[in-house]
Amino acid sequence: MTDTTCLDIGGRLVRLDPKTVSRRPANAREASKEPSRSLTANDSVAGRVEYIAPGLAPVISSLGLPLAEGKTASVDDLERLSRRMAAFFDELMGLAPRSSLFESMLTAHDFRSGDLKVKHVSFSGGVADGIAGVPDGGPFVYGDIGILLGQAVKWTETYRNLDVVQAEETIRATVVGAGSHSLEISGSTIGFSDESVFPLKNLPILKLTEEDERNSLGHALSEKLHWFKDSSGRQRTVAVSFRGRENPSFDEVQRIAEDLHDGLSEYLTHSDKVILVVENDMAKALGYALRSRLGDGKKVVSIDGIKVENGDYIDIGKPLAKGRVLPVVIKTLVFGG
Length: 337
Fold this sequence. Notes:
This protein is α/β, with parallel strands linked by helices. The protein folds into two domains: 11-164, no CATH class; 179-332. The chain has helices at 57-63, 75-92, 102-105, 126-132, 146-153, 157-161, 210-215, 217-224, 250-263, 283-294; strands at residues 14-16, 45-52, 72-74, 120-121, 163-164, 179-186, 190-192, 200-207, 239-242, 273-278, 299-304, 313-316, 325-332.
């Protein structure tokens, strides 16, 4: 694997009330073969919108679409949104100029290899099934815009101009949960200040590099936390991960806690939770040291013995065995060989 990145686009970012979704007429299947025609040419109403992901707000606004939770959406508006979402693939691949919205669509970071030339692409998951065609139940059979998005991908420069590799086996699931493993950690590997903070679900990982740790951990943390702000500047709660030191001295633990405290200063104005995921055995002591610097009202969860990467997500369940055990699930986007 040379590089990875991830865009915050997907079919489930807009969900419709299944009781209100339109059922595509049987004769509309051929419409999907022409990009200029609606998938549901005989049916202008898609259904009532149940949910719109906050990250889509600037995209919807830029298109001037009247989409809102609780309101009825038209097929045309959802198709326009789907086409704009699919167009971000072209911006990512360098096949179209990058718009002012592009960076807000990145979940963590862009491709790090500046000279990366992509020649082949492969699609997997539910949206990929939508590329293949529209199911008999219509484009809204799953109560979202996944099929519309899949059909929109077919008309991107990415799909038309790059070599599309058909995977022998595909992941028919959303990214979160497509590749995951669970474990339980206990004893000196865990520390938490308030049991009411659990369960924690779908926290994105912010992984600091060993170079960050050597140079200026606090500064690097402060800068990288900006990756997890939405378009309005609101900070998302994240799990901060780094390698840490083997057998650290008391002074080393205190220094790292001080660096973390400095790096988290702005973050803590938006969130009352600090989640630390450390590879080496120092989480409990580090959690205590950081907690003493934060004061009342801030909750600290620190765990170690776990290796994660940027792009991963973590769930931490409610404590078991009188607080001595924490169930943990790591979710990873898995690429086939």
